[in-house]
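Preliminary data (for renewal application), fe (ii) ion complex.
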Amino acid sequence: MTTMAEEGRLLGFVRAMTCLVQVVGADEAQLLAGAAPLMRALVAQDDWLPEAMAQPHPQHYQQHLLYGDPLDRFSLVSFVWGPGQQTPVHDHTVWGIVAMLRGRECSQRFGRDADGRIAAQGEEHALAPGELEILSPAQGDVHQVRNALPDRTSISIHLYGGNIGRIARHVFVPGTGETKPFVSRYSNALVPNLWAGASA
Ligand code: FE2
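Predicted structure:
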């Protein structure tokens, strides 16, 4: 069996992830258990992300689609954070794994209080390169994410159990019970060449 490095890290990941969804189907626990080591291996080396997929935008964070499974069983996205950039409070509606590649980001969980208002739950959690955050709708997947670095770009790689840029989900207004429909879409018009980093 070839390694991720021999195949090109991105191609190796996509191959392994495609095999995993074929074998375990839609079982979330098995998908998370199988995908977590693949994500850990993907971000263990910061030498494979195409430069175009690592570009920040001066006004807002970028979501570059790296690969979308044609059957919408998973998608892989690079999140590129400029200094001070953050998401709204949002959910995902599908399982996800966030793996930190470069810099540092912070995630704050949210939930509903006794009056139905959206409120922060627990402490903000910082992710360093190589670390993962698991998201499961069954366990509460509402959070807000921000670049923890005030003066540098941070990049995390996100794996989702669906085509996340096309999924109808929600943003939440903290301190109220209000939700708004949300489809995140993608920043890039072109996807990376998976074979660019592979040996012949
Ligand atoms: Fe998120």
